[in-house]
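Q: Two folds, back to back.
A: First:
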Amino acid sequence: MTKDDLTRVYEVELAPGSRKVRLDGKAPRPLARYFGAFNVVVFTPDDLGLPRGAPGDRRRFLDRSVFNLEPGYLAVASDHDKVLRSRNAVLRQVGQGTLSGRRADELLDVYDEQLAGLATQIAGARGRFLDRIAPELERAFAAITRTGLGVRSRLASKVAGLDAAAVRELLRESRARDLATQATQTGPHRDDLVFELDGREAGSFASQGQLRAIMLAWKTAELSLLGVVHGDLPVLLLDDVSSELDPSRNEYLFEHLAALAGQCFITTTHASHVLVHRERADYRLETGRILS
């Protein structure tokens, strides 16, 4: 990849049971260095089920998008996960009777302090991303569907908008419940990403075709946003998306992508699904080999 007259070589080596990445021939440390400067937006058929899927899947989906916008977010999220696991381990020890009294309270106080600060950073980054992608999401959905319906996304969170002291107090108030369940019940790990179509929760009320359009609009909106922020459009990877859309939405999608004028790699079961007729190169994959 060449950017700002600097050429970097990114490599991914896949083997049974392992995956290795290299940047300019070396293993990057930290790993965020590998991803932070090389912007890629990926869409797979699995994304289509997110509005009706599990909250944890939607959180991971959102966090990948946030990381593309703010590479430093990966370190914050990783630190939060480590502290959360430590706090939950203490809760389990108390429940099992191997830890109690003042020592347990002291440890939980320490982890509450750490979690509170990290939680506000995570909630803040998620909120900033949703604010910035909102207009792009509206435009992309309108371009792909041409129905006049409005779409938006929001964060369902008990800690969004709170400072560290308020989050710490919430953790303190929920400690009895946490001890009973042996798990931390309050924090960004309980957040949810909600999609709405014309003011109603899309996961409950939208049709399957509308949900597909929402998820595609999200990805193309993310593409546009990152292009503005980083100065050039990311590479877009679409995995067999066209076969999931009706002909009209498929046509609208490719018209919208052509207007963005970025680089796109598309995998599909049939070339006719890709409605691009210029600046296009086709390759065929057979028994692990790429054929032109």
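A: Second:
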Amino acid sequence: MRLAVLALGILSGHMADAAVIKTLSADPVSPPQIWTVPCTHSLEGEIVAGDAARLQAELDRLPGQDHDDRNFVLCLTSPGGNLAEGLKIGEIIRANWMATYVPQRASCLSACAVAFMHGRVAFWEYWMNLRVIHPTAVLGFHAPRLDLPPMDGAVPAPMVDAAYASAISTIAALAKAASGSVNDSRVPLIPLSLLEAMLSTPPDGFVYVDTLHKAFLWDIEIHPAGLVYPADFDPQVAEYDLCLNADYETRTQSGGRRGWPTLTRDEVDLFRSSVFPPPADLPAGYSFVTVSDLNTIGCGILFDSETGFLVVRQYLDASFETQVSLPAVYLFSPQTRIRDLWPAP
């Protein structure tokens, strides 16, 4: 018992200050404004034990609202901290229908990034993930740390066992978030491919969401305002990139029918040289492109000026498969660096 008390004293002796949690607006955000993620709440600073309870207390002060209009936006700036507490914060985010956003030039790392992945909103019968980063923001993940107190000589076995059990418990909680279908976004809170990347990254390093491939694969949106074209943007290639990138949404975590390729102008010219008639059920106003492979992948494409999204109708050998609405960044190669979508300083 004395050893356990001593260990707790060492573990808590260097506890950081709690994160600063604020309510910026008590008004929920309705569509389409929610896609611009205006901050209604903020969390800044290192995440420590008790921060989840403080966030819940802040939300409990809000006036009661129905499920359909209780959508808020939590803006996150944090170097990380207690990963178990980050998971608790994530559960509160999820339960209270909060979108998450990492603002311009902010960082959200480790425990903060795990909490961030719980962002979701609900409108009527539709539930969807909504976690957004600014192109200049930094979002980074890594494996749980085995926390042991600094001691001279060997660390007592009970301390090692307790730290190991804590790490395994945290991994189990991450796996739980990765295992279920949670909403209409088709992607779990923490996709299995992200969990794999996290557990493959040592605690002293980070896997960053730095390319569109990672953002698309893990269902993370890029803040839409103020974006610029990547330097190598080719409008002739863009429709074909969009057609294949739609697989990120419609064939989630599958690798897509052609993987995640970087299309070349020569490939696109070859696709364009084979003319396929539009399907009979393609609505008026849609353009139509095809990618020749083992099968013919076709996409009807329409820009919806009311929402600002691109509507993609997918066909396989002229048979309709599904339809999805995507933001404009899906016009770009998956290998595009997210930072390249923002003007140079």
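Q: And?
A: Residues 1-15 have pLDDT under 50 and may be disordered.
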